[in-house]
Design a protein that fits this description.
single chain, 489 residues, BirA Bifunctional Protein, domain 2, Rossmann fold, 7-stranded mixed beta sheet, 5-stranded mixed beta sheet, 35% helix, binds glycyl-adenosine-5'-phosphate
Amino acid sequence: MANDSNRFQAIISHCKEYGFIFPSSEIYDGLQAVYDYGQWGSELKKNIRDYWWKSMTQLNDNIVGIDAAIFMHPTTWKASGHVDNFNDPMIDNKDSKKRYRVDHLIEGFADEQVAVGNKQLAEDVLSQMDALLAKDDFASLKKLIEDNKIKCAISGTSNWTDIRQFNLMFSTEFGSTVSADDEDNKVYLRPETAQGIFVNFLNVQKTGRMKVPFGIAQIGKAFRNEIVARQFIFRMREFEQMEMQFFVRPGTEGEWYKYWKEERLKWHLSLGFDPAKYRYHDHVKLAHYAKEACDIEFEFPIGFKEVEGIHSRGDFDLSQHEKFSKKKQNYFDNDIDPATGKAYGNYIPYVIETSIGLDRMFLLVMSNAYTEEDLSTAEKPDSRVVLKFPAKLAPIKLAVFPLVKKDGLPEIARNIISDCKSSFRCFYEEKDAIGKRYRRMDALGTPFCITVDHQSKEDNTVTIRYRDSMQQERIAIDKIKEIVTAAIA
Ligand code: GAP
């Protein structure tokens, strides 16, 4: 069994070898922190996306979805505060010229301390970092780095520059009307999907006749010029977010924040994941728009890390868009306020946001599923790698194998696939010994395999083999669809 430090490497290799994730434009040596999803990765990603979308929109009758464009009017990003505030404090090592995000540098040091048993030091350093970041006290942060002799991984020295702020947005030119040199008219690749929701708040509210409280959900690409982009798909420059903005009456944001904080953790646990692998991290340093915020963290092989953020954004975004666009963003609430006996009237709603990275959720699902099992017996050594995905997320739900490539067995196998393929993803395979075919499906995380043999011709039964237990049993062909459908519901 791979231990935690090399388990992550094993997962990365597995993703490549089995068609889940490839480095982008690999034939040109790749592009740092950009990845492509392969044939099975894109299926898994789609299943995660669909599961989120359904739980947000179909299962909540007061949440609807939209799909806004990646390009937005440049003023959007001035109003949202991203032009001025979407910065990270960075520090450069003077010897290697390598640039680090300050929090990542210190967190990396803390992880190393935990690994060598200095848990207390790690906790102290992290809590000092949180407090200093909250005050933007860069001089003391630099001193914290120097006092702890935190070194650059490349040069091995502690020869650091002062800490400076860098903006993370990518910008580009737009048609022939905007020049890239014109600071005021730069077009940005959106760094979050949320703003596409805010600028459409009134469009959706009016055309959908939505009544506060209600939510707007969206899934789409976001782009950030991450300086330290490592750890595989954990931190990418092009990634996908699944965000939901929930519009509430001012004064009720505290209870809705609590509600969504709990609700989102329940969503993760509904996939059958171990609650002990999750924890909340309440923010000390708040983003420029947030009044209250927390992360849902998961224990990845690289330690507990953020997978999702819940933010109480107040009326910051809608008020800013009202100010910059000069278009009212008011909602009229005709419910009666028991305190005054009158309608609540006009106000700009407050917002609770839930924001999860699709790629990070993919990594979570993959890390949780990846299992190396020792199956050795006294007679022979044996092992397998199996991806124990929740059946509903598995890229392939059912594999069907004829025992041999003749005697009418392939035809029976193909008929089973014809019967099932409109309901779920199936896979046909007739090459290699059955044991080898099972192992290949284990490595892809396929929960059910069916083997068609000569007995199938006589009594319409087949062998079903369950991925996790490796148990096999004889079932009627007409039960297959029912078994798989029940498992993926
Ligand atoms: N709209 C709020 C927002 O964007 P965030 O905490 O910056 O908040 C939300 O991002 C989520 O997006 C994170 O919890 C993470 O899952 C994902 N995410 C952020 N930056 C990412 C990156 N560079 N690569 C992959 N996922 C990222």
